[in-house]
Amino acid sequence: MSHENEYYDNMITMLELIWGEGYMAPGGPGNVARMLHGIETRDKRILDIGCGIGGPALEMAATFGAEVVGIDLEAPLVERAIAAAQRKGLSDRCTFRTVEVGPLAFPDESFDIVVTSGALTQTKDKDSVFRDCFRVLRPGGSLSCYDWMKSAAPYSDDMLYWFKVEGLTYALETLEDYEMHFQHCGFVDIAVNDASSWYRSQVSLEYDLIKGKLYPRMVELLGQQDADHFVENWRAMTIVCNSGEMRQCYCRGQRPD
């Protein structure tokens, strides 16, 4: 199945302005720390699914002492990640590759940890992905993910409008759905932590920033039209976050020893 690239240059620039160089998900380096909290990473082999432009993977290598393989469907993102690893002198501990939709092209039990941040938000068949994560994990290994999720209610007009403004493909599920996926796939010690209150306050701060102090810089880098588009994007996002319809969650589980 072919994949159509959705992330364009100005969108990536905007995400980095908000979340930091190399990051395409909320929280920047702090998000990496939350995903890996309590997991031994030194000299461990990590698979980063949906690595984007490489910020999280490079953080895992530089700060957490891991050997990281990052994969993504979008070749332009992977090219930027490879260049970033070279600039930072981390190419020996952090490699990236473009992949196709489908099973992970890695042998059984080849990673100690699998992480994914915001990538499965756009994946319909999550159960198959989690089963494949279980397969490539070594016994005792951990799967840890951060994702954007939804409430159990049908989508409101506000949510549908945000999807339209956002311009990305979303296949959102509930926190309860994620817990069931982990159980079905054989994971144990499952933890599902609702982070919606954290991002609800964070997104309001981001919105204030981009319509205020950061706005002139956005116009300079993105042009007036895209700068205004992202202001509206964040306004729409604050509405669905504040209503509780759009949620955030950290989930993790372990492959049994």
Architecture overview:
It is a single chain. By secondary structure, the chain is α/β, with parallel strands linked by helices. It has a domain at 9-150 and 170-196 and 247-254: Vaccinia Virus protein VP39 (Rossmann fold, 3-Layer(aba) Sandwich), CATH 3.40.50. The protein contains 10 helices and 7 strands. The protein has a 7-stranded mixed β-sheet, sandwiched between helices. The longest helix is centred in the last third of the chain and has 19 residues, at 224-242. The chain is globular and about 50 Å long. The model has no long low-confidence stretch (mean pLDDT 94).
Descriptive terms for the model:
257 residues; alpha/beta; Rossmann fold; seven-stranded mixed beta sheet; 10 helices
Topology of this protein?
Layout: H1 9-19, H2 29-36, E1 45-49, H3 55-62, E2 67-72, H4 75-87, E3 94-98, E4 111-117, H5 126-136, E5 137-150, H6 157-166, H7 175-184, E6 188-194, H8 196-210, H9 215-222, H10 224-242, E7 246-254
Parallel strand pairs: 1-2, 1-4, 2-3, 4-5
Antiparallel strand pairs: 5-7, 6-7
Helix pairs in contact: 6-10, 8-10, 9-10
Q: What general outline do the C-alpha atoms trace?
A: globular
State the end-to-end distance.
Answer: 34 Å
Low-confidence stretches: none
Q: What structural class results from the helix and strand content?
A: alpha/beta
Profile the largest sheet. 7 strands, mixed
CATH class of one domain: Alpha Beta
At the fold tier of CATH, the topology name of one domain is Rossmann fold
Output the helix-strand order.
Answer: HHEHEHEEHEHHEHHHE
- Amount of helix: 40-55%
Average of the residue pLDDT scores = 94
Order of neighbouring strands in the sheet with most strands: 3-2-1-4-5-7-6
Q: Give the C-alpha Rg.
A: 18 Å
According to CATH, the homologous superfamily of one domain is Vaccinia Virus protein VP39
